Amino acid sequence: MKLDYYTRIENGTGRSPCQEACCCVGADAENARAHCGGQTTAAIGGIVNKIEEGFHKTVFSISGMDCGDCAAKLEKRIANIPGVKSAIFNFGAGKLMVEHAIADSAIVKVVKQAGYGAIKENKTARQPLAETHWWKNVRTLATVSSGVTMTIATVLDWLGIAEGFVVWLYALTAIVGGFHAAKSGLYGLRSLSLDMNFLMTAAIVGAAVIGEWSEGAAVAVLFSFGNTLQTYTMDKTRKSIRSLMELAPPEALVRRGKEEVRLHVEDIVVGDIVIVKPGDRIAMDGIVHSGVSAVNQATITGESIPVEKTAGDMVYAGTVNEHGALEITVTKTAENSTLAKISHLVEEAQAQKAPSQQFVDVFAKYYTPLVLVAAAGVMVLPWLVFQQPFAPWFYNGLVLLVISCPCALVISTPVSIVSAIGNASRQGVLIKGGAYLEEMGSIKAIAFDKTGTLTQGRPVVTDIVVTNGYSENDFLAMAAGIEKWSEHPLGQAIVARAKGLKLQPATHFKALVGRGAQAVIDGQTMYIGNVRLFEDLDHDLAPYGEVLADLEQQGKTVMLLGTQNRIFGMIAVADTLRNESREAINALHRAGMKHITMLTGDNDRVARAIAKKLNLDSFYSELLPEDKVAAVKKIACDYGKLVMVGDGVNDAPSLAVATVGVAMGGAGSDVALETADVVLMTDDLDKLAYIIKLSHKTVTIIKENIAFAISIKIIFLVLLAFGMGNLWLAVLADMGASLLVTFNGMRLMRRLPFPLRVLPSRLAES
Hints:
The chain is an alpha+beta fold. The strands form five sheets. It has an eight-stranded mixed sheet with strand order 1-24-23-16-25-26-27-15, with helices on both faces. Helix 8 (213-245) packs antiparallel against helix 10 and helix 15 (434-442) packs across helix 26. The longest helix has 35 residues, at 687-721. The relative contact order is 0.11.
């Protein structure tokens, strides 16, 4: 394998930031931004959401909503209310997020007028579900009632008994089965927002007008039955989302003073001591005060193996204390717990529209009016222009109205995105939007920050070479005596290695930025640092060249210790690779990733050694933080899109400018939860391949759903053209399509095989 490498990227040409690192030299700013995936320097500073004065955000739980097209129409209605700045309907979670300056009651009123229920959510208290069980739903009871009357009417009609009474039974069936649809449809008509309910109501009324009472009743029953099944399936999906937040118990045993009291989690404050017995779920985030146990953290990190916990370890709300009692000092309130943040972020992510959903929404925006015009033409043109009988063509127009309902098409994407994001959250992966989920499967280049991502992030001393007569312990005692005053990770590694030794007392410590440090030991100035420091001291390093080269080629950082005139020895320190790093890189190659690179501030030799060990395609070395941003932009230019993986803290700017930023260790980092587009709750790199597989599967299912939703309509239109279509069959086809795309999307809720095993391993030369 040919290994390319790049050293520090120099700036200062006066071009735009995207052009600065872009391979498209000479491109104008607009083209450069487009070629770099739409990234701009505004992303570096992060995203700032500032609510205008007087506006506030409220979340409402909506009941009775089982149609994606209807949800989009309701979202539009709310957004157009004076005093409302924005409205986002999360169809998957059944929640409406509104930024507004008007009273909450005004918004609830509009929702209820549209035929749905609305409950304002309390930020801290546990919410009653806005939706009752589907079998207790008023609409379900209407479905059962209309089904009974339809059955009686059909039997009597078939037997030819009481024909006048049969017509009344059909009419009653249509009224009972179609009441809720008519209520919502008429409200939509008043607001000039025509949805599925209006189309079905028009079909029922139209059938009655031309005397097809049985057809109108069949439409009402089938539509009502389809909505009942749709409500059941969406309830199942939404329950899986809500269950995440319900993992944390509502109460906890708290020690206050000498008493132990059971308190609701909203009454527990930071600093309280919570007592958790074996087998209980932990109610609050905190630090173990006393006790030893193993905690199952699968709800947060996706890890099924319990993790040992002792005093000083972090624990999270919603996790299970397997054995042993624990006393926990609370560090976060219930509303700010890691579980609460994950739950809110998952819901927000499910509300974000993926590119495929945006396409479908735009398509439906123009599709519905065109269908109405076409149906009207079918109804009246043959009668007016060609003197054809009115009733048959009016009936055909009604059939066209029903089969052309876009509900299956509109719901095809969100149900898939919701299911996939919910699946990922159970695996300890937080994906903050459908757009990022879809992108992960299409990106062919990925960049890793080295420290703390590919490596452990904790350097350790690997080699000690003494050159001037000192024993190894004496040499180490001098080095650690200086470094104990340093906060640098390399210095701390030396101090850790010298644990148990009597350190040489050092005074007058001074950090030498970028080179090392100096201090006074036994009256003489001692220096410890890199090669550059000792070159500046005019030392001849030729005698040590072979040893230095050998250590650096192994990917180790070498520090020398000595005075102005003498060198006493060398210490090699290395940040060891994670155990799973190489296999994770191989899995990414098998998953179809074409280019995998590493960004680091280390020197070229260290970076090259690590890149070879991991079978990377390239690396960038000796980078300052601003250089990493430029490198990310350059790679994005070269490959069109880029995934950047880091810790979410030190490399936040790089994550921001990448197409998708992935942060590791989110369970212990609020910053990582906020800065990245995708968060791995643990440091498990293997889950990157899982995300790619999930992305591929999600996109495949979305394409299947869209293709099926469109195909079923085309097939039925062909049948209609040959005179083989009728109203009840049209309703059956439309509701059947909606249910099938829903069930197909829900397949993404299943656990995917992990770790990934996909394509044959790529052959590579090291």
